[in-house]
């Protein structure tokens, strides 16, 4: 039988969890209350529900069996992780949080950070010694005030040399402190393409960095370049969040300057809100208003209900205004996208979903390969924040849909492959927005017809142990619409 549960608060002593959790008022609550929310949310919405036997609607035959199952887990995190389908392959991105206030801040670009966006690099596969390289610095942050810049090298934190042997054997936790110092160095290739003879030499200089509550403006660099008679707009966009009006104003500047070519730099953009991806796609174009941009696919049960009751929820269309704000669209038929393995989710959505409509010339390396999206689910009757359970601040961010373009292209697990492969090199990162920065220079050369492309795929391209810049959120696409109440009501009470 189909077993949809009301909130279970176990009364019998045999059903009580031995471990408890505290809310913000230091009141003890039973973990089963949170576990019940976690299971119900995953059972209702999880994209890979059909692949997880413990999420089957007929998994439990009684409330007692269900309560026993919940109470076998020592924490909500353990339960959540047990319900993830193939963490290393299919679902690398679902997460749970014990503080949805922090989660909301994170999704909106507000974090505790010192502003140094960096990655950890290795010299070879066998050498455990590591060093860091600064990818970019947030304006106005501690790192900016201390004078750090893109391309700076550091090899130690608080005087300890960085090392990495395995995910559980490294000293990356040194970065967790609110304040820490880094020792700067220079990178030397010794004139060879091999890594084994490379070295980092100390500069004898250290920099102290302090984290603060900081909101990043995702419009990191924007400028108009006049090259070879071409008006080229350049926008480095680091996250699909922030102000829609500010982004619209950037495109107004491009439009008034007569921009006819656009380079969209997404190399460090790991995603963000679905609505901002729609906005970006519509600003680049403008001639496709009302046409389908995105198609979404949920788990089988949800998909059937949406198709029956609310099919419009399964698609997103190009727009020409947002909340009454007219868009300064460029009406382009071509865009250049700069990408790396850190370009994920909403970044990939823009590239993939624009391709059926205009030429998208991708320059860089393969993207991350995240074609799924999530909603924030709260412990409330309809999983929205309205009427949220006041006893705790847990929320879950599971993958609940995958997206495709109008031609149904999806499931690009290995990422989107560039038209022109050009890896960032550790010895020549360049200045973001500068005409001579390698990736931008390649785009400009392609635009003006003067490009002399050299495939830089090789040992000196940037690699990292965790394949993501430190201080970033792993690939995310957050659908910021609410699921209609008539849909959740049908799911919960059916």
Account of the protein in words:
With 494 residues, the protein is of the alpha+beta class. It folds into 3 domains: 1-84, no CATH class; 113-215, Roll (Pdz3 Domain), CATH 2.30.42; 219-485, 2-enoyl-CoA Hydratase, Chain A, domain 1 (Alpha-Beta Complex), CATH 3.90.226.10. 21% of the residues lie in helices and 27% in strands. The chain has helices at 31-45, 63-71, 76-82, 100-107, 142-145, 244-256, 274-284, 300-309, 346-354, 438-448, 485-493; strands at residues 20-22, 28-30, 95-97, 110-113, 116-122, 130-137, 153-157, 160-161, 164-166, 169-170, 179-188, 199-210, 212-215, 219-227, 230-237, 261-265, 271-273, 292-297, 315-317, 321-322, 325-326, 334-339, 359-364, 372-374, 377-378, 395-397, 399-404, 420-421, 476-478. Strands 5, 6, 7, 8, 11 and 12 form a 6-stranded antiparallel beta sheet that branches. α6 (244-256) runs parallel beside α7 (274-284) and α7 runs parallel beside α9. The chain is globular, with a radius of gyration of 24 Å. 41% of the residues are buried.
